[in-house]
Amino acid sequence: MMFRVESVLLNDARPERAQEWRLALMDLNSECDASACTVILDATTEGGVTDRIDTAETSESLAFEPAALRRHFREYAKIIRQLSRAGYGYRDMETLDYAKKLAHDEAGETIADTLSPHLTLSHRVARKLFTLFFLLCHETPANLVNRHGLR
What we know:
alpha+beta
């Protein structure tokens, strides 16, 4: 499978934001096989994400309702904000980095479970997909993306 961001969304985004998405897509697609299907992602105005799964035979749309991702987004954003603050010692940064990993793991599990009737995702791919979902649904300051990689 390969992942793409809906071209209208990508074309309408600020160049810096579109570049964030492209980098996250490259990272995500580096884990994927280009065969089978294409998953096209789009952000909704309500803060959710839609996936369109296109195969040679069918096209199927799935919606991640905002409520399904809200808790994960909120927790992840809180950790990223904490990481961006100066003044933490090595142990604090290590703890926050581990918290970020756990948040990613849990969100990846939610995504994989939700998509399991339609797609089989490895844990690693589901984590990277969460990163892309987060970036699509949130205006993330460039210094946070660049400094912490969000992955």
